[in-house]
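[Discussion] Sanity-checking designs against the backbone

I'm trying to build intuition for which residues belong where. Below is a structure token string of 387 positions. I'd appreciate it if someone posts a full sequence so I can compare it with mine line by line.
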């Protein structure tokens, strides 16, 4: 991305995860909007980079509605590896102001804190010597990208339980990947995998909609239906077909849980706290309540997780009407006999009950989740009393 001295500013989305349409650049104001592509409804994901050679203040104004979250846009000055919130004081409902220093280089802006393939590969590189971690390829996407499948288990151990975790069924919902890193870091930090996770296998799909993640799509409400509604009799997406085939072929264990990480809307009722989306299965509901109670008691409670924020099936948006397009991952996997609990967890983009959601706090919450998973497998031995 080159800029000549006489250029005022360059704005584009031509990089992994980029999504923007620039409409005009004039008098210190860039007008732009998110690219909806094959999204059947309006949605709010955007991510772009800007470069200017001058020390200058620029206003970025969105023409596609309110697409800025409660802490303003996320900003990165190191090519998207580290992000911070600009904070709401520099942002209005549909615009924000940024003061570029002299020769600022490329600055990235986004509705959230993107997590791309490069972030996952950085994580794998940091842990590739760990004997517990095995990296496989689940399948290839329609655009011939590898879909990673990570397995964490003690070599040679007898598997007594499994934890299945999926991220990015909606490719724009990136904050769950940082939570996932926290879980994996916690499990990988103990090479001996002491009890009770010693005989637990973790099977993780970081990017279900891998093409959408790298292309910078919305993913939510993709036409004719998105990946999160593709667990019908016949799936249309190769990764969902491969995931179902892989899970169906696993040998039965004593028990297991499945988690699917999502992000809610940017604002409105129920969007500013972490919560579990209740299953329609009474059996699964009971286990979700147990797990929620364990997670609530773990300190430090970085996101102020409350078991009372549980969203039961039939309340709010969690109704049968919202799933008319198709069955979800958790709904499908709940039909497997050895799965005790299968739950969708919503991770806000920026704010959880007044506490900042960012890369570090999301990882910390992931470490709490790993503890909750450990205690859950001990629950029959009064594990809750040991927290």
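Best answer:
Here's mine. Compare freely.
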């Amino acid at each position: 991305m080159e800029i000549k001295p006489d250029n005022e500013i360059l704005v584009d989305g031509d990089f992994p995860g980029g999504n923007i349409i620039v409409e005009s650049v004039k008098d210190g104001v860039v007008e732009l909007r998110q690219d909806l592509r094959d999204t059947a409804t309006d949605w709010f994901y955007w991510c772009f980079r800007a470069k200017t050679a001058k020390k200058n203040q620029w206003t970025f104004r969105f023409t596609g509605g309110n697409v800025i979250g409660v802490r303003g846009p996320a900003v990165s000055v190191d090519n998207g590896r580290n992000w911070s919130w600009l904070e709401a004081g520099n942002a209005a409902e549909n615009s924000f102001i940024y003061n570029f220093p002299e020769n600022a280089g490329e600055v990235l802006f986004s509705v959230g804190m993107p997590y791309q393939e490069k972030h996952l590969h950085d994580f794998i590189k940091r842990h590739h010597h760990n004997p517990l971690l095995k990296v496989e390829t689940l399948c290839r996407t329609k655009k011939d990208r590898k879909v990673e499948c990570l397995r964490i288990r003690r070599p040679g151990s007898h598997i007594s339980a499994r934890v299945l975790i999926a991220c990015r069924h909606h490719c724009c919902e990136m904050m769950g990947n940082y939570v996932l890193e926290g879980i994996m870091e916690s499990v990988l930090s103990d090479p001996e995998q002491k009890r009770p996770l010693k005989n637990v296998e973790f099977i993780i799909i970081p990017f279900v909609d891998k093409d959408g993640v790298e292309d910078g799509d919305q993913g939510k409400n993709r036409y004719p239906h998105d990946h999160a509604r593709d667990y019908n009799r016949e799936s249309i997406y190769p990764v969902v077909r491969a995931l179902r085939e892989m899970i169906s072929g696993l040998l039965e264990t004593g028990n297991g849980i499945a988690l699917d990480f999502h992000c809610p809307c940017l604002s409105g009722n129920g969007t500013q706290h972490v919560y579990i989306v209740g299953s329609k299965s009474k059996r699964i509901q009971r286990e979700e309540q147990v797990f929620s109670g364990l997670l609530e008691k773990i300190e430090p409670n970085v996101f102020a997780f409350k078991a009372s924020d549980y969203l039961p099936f039939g309340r709010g948006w969690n109704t049968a009407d919202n799933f008319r397009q198709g069955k979800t991952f958790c709904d499908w996997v709940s039909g497997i006999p050895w799965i005790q609990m299968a739950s969708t967890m919503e991770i806000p983009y920026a704010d959880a009950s007044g506490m900042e959601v960012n890369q570090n706090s999301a990882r910390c919450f992931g470490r709490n989740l790993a503890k909750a998973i450990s205690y859950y497998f001990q629950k029959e031995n009064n594990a809750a009393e040991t927290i």
